[in-house]
Every structure is written in structure tokens, then in C-alpha cells.
Amino acid sequence: xxxxxxxxxxxxxxxxxxxxxxxxxxxxxxxxxxxxxxxxxxxxxxxxxxxxxxxxxxxxxxxxxxxxxxxxxxxxxxxxxxxxxxxxxxxxxxxxxxxx
Length: 100
Fold this sequence. Notes:
InterPro entries: ClpP/crotonase-like_dom_sf (IPR029045), Enoyl-CoA_hydra/iso (IPR001753), Enoyl-CoA_hydra_C (IPR014748). This is 3-hydroxyacyl-CoA dehydrogenase C-terminal domain-containing protein. It comes from marine sediment metagenome. It is a single chain. The chain is mostly helical. It has two domains: 1-37, no CATH class; 41-100, Lyase 2-enoyl-coa Hydratase, Chain  A, domain 2 (Orthogonal Bundle). It is 61% helix and 0% strand. The chain contains five helices and no strands.
């Protein structure tokens, strides 16, 4: 698509995994709110590190990006929030993140 300029339908983009969801324009605000609410419920440190790695990985070779990913996982897995997330999963409850 980038090279040829060919466009595809929203449904086709969904089918090939290019987008996560397809919906009517009238549902846009409701969908955005739902996604934002979900993101806000996640561990803030993990989300922040993931965003930084994704942004930086676009400008480095694949092997460097993979190293960053492994480093990021190491950072995240050493946080209190990571431990809380694991405990909550095993206990069948929602995690209570403290941004630590």
C-alpha cells in the first residue's frame, strides 16, 4: 500500500490485522472512550515504557529494537505494579496499580 498507493476497505484492513476494530463513524466517540478507559486501567509504568520502546524502535535496526524490548521487560518486571498484576491475575481480581 505504501509503495503502490493502493487503498483497501476498512473491513479488509481488519481482516489482515492492520487495524483492531471497524465501526461506524457515529460510534467513534464511544469507541475512543472505551479504549481510553481500558488504557487508563493498565499499569502506567509498563504503558510508558512500551510507548517509548515502540517510538524509539522505529529509528533503530531490528536487533537493537529487540534488545530494547528485552530491557524494557526487565524494567517492568522489577516493579511493584508488575507483581500486583500477577497476584491479581492469580487471585481473580482487578489489579490496584500504584505507579511503583
